[in-house]
Amino acid sequence: MSKIKSSDKGKAAKKKNAEEIKSDIIDGSSITDLVNFSIDRYTSIPNFVRLAEYLRGQQEFGLVIRVCDRAQRRLQNMEKDRVGREIRSIRLAKLEKKLKQKQDESDPKNKKPHEDLGDELTTGETHLFKWVQMEKNINNFLPGDFTLTQRANFDYQLQIARLLINTVLDSNTLREAAAEAANQEVDDVTSDASLDQIIDRCLIFVVNPEHLESIANLLLEKGKFQSALNVCTRAFGRVQEMRGRLEQKIKLQTQKVLLEQEETRLEKIKKELTANQQKLLATHKSIKNLPSVFSFDSESNDAYDTLALNLTKLMLKIAMDFKLALKRKQTLVEKRGKRFTKKEKQALADNTTDKTLRSVLEEGMKTGNVENPNHLYQIAEQLYSGEEWELAYPVISKGRKRILDIQADIKKRKEDRARLETLRTERSEAYTQWKPENMPQTRRAELDKLEFDDHVFRTFESRYKNDSFEQFENLHIKVMKLLVDCMMNQYKTTKKQSKETKKPPVAYEKRAIELLDSIEKPNFIYQLAKHMEHYWKFASDMVIKFGEKCQNITRKIEEDRQRRAPLTTERDRVKSEIEDLTTRNRDVPKEKTDRLEHLNKQIAALPAWVEYANLDNPREYDELNLDVVRVMISAILNNKVLFDAKIAKARKTKDPATIVESEIEAKRQKIQEGIQKMVSTTLERFSNPSDLLKIARDMKNKEEVDIVLQISIKSLQRILDIEVQRNLRLQNLAKLKAAQEAKQPAKVAEIEKKMSDLAVWPHYAELENKNQYAQTKYEIIKVALESVLEHQTKVEANISQQYYLDKKRTDEKKISAQREAMENNIEQVVKLCNANLRNADRLFDICRDLSTRKQASILLRIAPAFFSHIRSLVEKREEKDRRDCYFKVLTQEKNDMARIKKELEAGLAKELADITTERNDEAANKDPFKYPVDLKDQNGLNRYVEDFASLLVKTTFSTNQHIEQSIKTDEEKDVLTSSRRKYLESQIKANNETTLQLIFDHVRNPVFVSGLVRQYNDKQLYDFGIDLGLNALAKRRDVADKQEANQSRLDRIKKLEEERAELDKKRKKLTTEQVDELRRLYLETSVFQTNPSYVTDTRPQQLAMDIAKDLIVTMQKAKTSNQRSAEVVDECLKHITEITTLIQFAKYLTTQTEYKHTIKAGRKCEEYINAIKMDLEKREAMKKRVTDLEESKLKALAALGTSGGESNIDPKIKEDLENTKKELEQLPEIEYDKRQLDSWLLDISAVVIEAAKIEEDDQTLCEQTVMAFKIDTSLERWDQVRNMVGEANWGKIKKDLVDFILKRDDKPEDKIELLLKDGLYEYCLDLFPAPTGQGRELELLLRLWTEVEENDPKLLERFIPLVCRFVKRYYQEHKYKSVDALLDRVAHWFPTMVIEVYRQACDMVLLWILPSQYTRFIDAMKECKKRLTDLNRENDWEELLRDFKRQHYGKRKLMQMLLGVVDDPDWSIEVVNTGKANP
Asked: What residues contact 1079, with CB distance under 8 A and at least 6 apart?
């Protein structure tokens, strides 16, 4: 408590100090005196405003009012001064003009005519002129505040008024806040009264309606609704005042203009106005320069219309905001305990808000305020957006009435202006004759009135009245739609409220019928019926009534047209003929005038023709009738939906025992009969396929699938009938044209008779446009398909829901019937699609849509039709390509013939001319071959097929995945039956199988098919992947066959061209058969190049390899059986025929651990290689045979000499030679040589050997090792064979190998090396070659001797002849020391035989020895003596020496050298050469 008391004391002290300070500042003077002192001395209005704003901020509200009052009065005085100055300025201008005119008249050079301004200035006018000029100059020295413009003055008045109003509002707010703080009732009646006083004072000075609108907006923002409305009412009054002043001004100006125009016309005929007219004209001229009352007075009535609209909308906003604010306050009072003010209580008690709204509308709707129907529409829209349906209805009704009145005025004004032009023409003729009195006074008065009214209308009336009739038509339909919205929403609102108020809702039917009865234009009725569709939940029956009336009106118009149109046409024709005769000054026959009169009477007797209909357009309402029918069908279907919803609700809320099913079914049947009746009537009445398409779309949106199919079938049948009629007519027209050109009148008449018997050609069909309905057919089928699929989705969802809710009570028969019906619908649509869509593009689009919807089963049923169309396109493309290629071949042949100055054969020339004509027609687009897609070549067609096939595969995958997911989902929900599971699983299987079969049958590119293998592998569909791979191999075979055939043709072309070149040299030609063959070959090779790139560019063997790899991978992933795997590999091996590719495949099988298949592939490869080797050997043998026969032939010719010729040669030789050559030519060329083939055999055998080792296939291992040895007879491979073969089999194999080695053409040394490997010494001795003196033959002989010496010494004796040959050869070449090692071996084993060897060798050497070679021979003899001596064979040496001397005694020098050497062991060759004695 002590703290509280101390704080209160502190506040009191502070307050006291503040008061003391304030009193010190004021220092005895009051604030009021200070303000009075200031405002008495202020001259600038901005200073008043700033002072007032400051005082308002200080909450000195009374002083603010005083300052503003003084400012307002000062502004009022300033405005009075300004008006006086402006009047005097006008007088001054007139005096200046008068003075200037007098000066100009005194100037003789100025010849211009002048206005008569009276005599010279009077004395008073002179003083006035001087005084006004001085005033004007003095005002230039005054501040700008003293010479404000009227607009600036009024702007200050508005600023001060707003400041005053805000001041009063601030004061009232403080009082109301204090009352609320004291929990007292707020007396807003008193505060608003003070506010209204200030407002009334301000409105004395603020006269601009726009400023008043600004003040009203300010009051609206502050929540002073009634005050704001009062200001708006005052503004309305100001607007009417200004509009009245403008109208008076316009009428005066019109009188002046018309008098001036009359004065001008009379001057031309030297006459004057009457005295009264002159006086009236002078009066108008005297007031023409008076200023406007206010500067903001507009010169256009449109501005006042806009002001009135804005004020009315503002007043409505104020009233609606007042109503809304009161509702919010009521909520606050009820929920938060707030209190009402006195005025709010009074408003609630008197229901002021609704009364205020009505009074506002009454004010705005007063005559002269808001007359523009567009403005009335905006006001009604404002009320509509505020949910004031009841008030909006009369406003928009007035707007509609105003439109009708304006349209009637437009018609009347049109008539008046026509009358005005007639009277003006009459007046002009009278004035032209200089006799105005010739025009009767009554017509003259009528002319004056019409001119006056027309001029006033053009000048004063708002622009909207000058709008066209059509513009009001558009506004009229908007107004009527808003009328419908008002009545419908009022019904909806009151229907909701009726549950609480227990009052019946405001019925809309009566108003709607009244509106319908007031409309005659069928287009308006249709648009309103279409608009009523938004309220289909309760207004469908009314929509049907509107539609029926629209149909009745159009039917009546059509009936009137049928009667009136022929008569009118004939009347116009007769009238035109009469006018033509009259123009040419011919007599008009009486029968024509009688006929014209009779026709006019007939037409006059008919009912009046409605002005909005076009008599000459018999199809004017076709589109409208269709739209009306669509709306009516939609309304009937809406009733069906409402009925179903009502029944569904009843089943949920009512006792099932109270529901009478028979009544429900009867009502449903009745509705269905109504729908079917409407549809049947529609199909009978409308035959245009485009119209039927629109109805089908509507039915699709309403989910009426049966009706959609019914309409689709009718529409497509109609299109078919039109196409049949078109073809008949075009054929007859072509025949008619030909008959007319041939001038055959009888035939022309016959054809015309046939054409007249044809069915009437529909007006909506285009005879020359054969593809008119291509898009329509596509869209019809698409609508039908979408409808069926959407229905299927809905039915399946319902079935699933039934299972989910109660699986036991589900009616399986009903579900089966529903699904069967759905399948029938789908089948029906598929048949329509396949039978009617002839365009591959359209089919592709539909299939894309099916793919998006994951409908593979339907797509697969449409796919055959697509492939069939593409097949026909391919055939046409191939035919065209062949024709173009033939054109090129013939053109080239023609050019070649021209170079040798010859012409093409007659038959070929005619063919070329026909093709040229056909190509020119295509270029001129006379009969172009139109593709449905951009398919300029077969590559494009092939890509198109592949794209479609990709779509098939993609759709199949996605659909199957969707089915699998649905199976899984239904299992989790326990809504999947066993029969349904079987069906779905069978569907998956069928989808996959059908897709594969379509690809097998229609896709020709093996590369594409092989790519699908990987896709199927990714989806783990390995069995299908294998089937695809095998199919790709088969298609690859076709490609390979085409390439091989083309290569054969190229080879044949080359031969024929070479033959032709040889014949050209001899000035001979090819035979006719050869020329034809060459032309055919050129054509076929050219046609081959037009094939898709996969045919011309693919490498078949590499492709086969790639496919085989994919198959192996697929086979492994699928874990297929051994039999299936063997079949797949066998199929791959059938297609891989290139050796290198086959080797790669075998190696690839090895990498995939498929060793058994590796062996199989290797054997296949070896078979191919061996076959080629046999062909190569056969070819070589035949070449040798040809060579031998040619040699025999030459020998025979040589034997005959010059006396004989070829005719004398043995005929058998000649015949045999020719046959052999022909047979050789027929043999295929072999591009490989034996070395390359052996290399491949070694390569593949290595692969097979490795596989056989892993598979432990000993037989294969042995076979491959032996084969490899036979190719590469090396020591290593001999060892491999020896190691691989067991002892039991080695003997047999060794014999085979030896026989092979002996038969080979290899070097004997190589054979001996191999035979030595296994101790086959006898074969070695037999094979050992004769000495050549080169290479390693001596080394090989010593090696053979050594091994025989070690392993089989018995055979050494067989060496002696061989050794003898070698020693002879080497001694003969003087290579004595080379055979020393060999002689040592012989001397060791056969000492007696070595003497004979030496003897033969020496004899051979001495036959050709030269003296210069004696020295080396003596050295060899010395070595022989040493060798024999070492063997203790001195006697043999001596015997050898004796025989040598005896035999060669003639060689003295040799003997001398021999005798000096053989007995001297220290002999040196150098001694012999130098002739010195031995030491």
From this structure: 889, 893
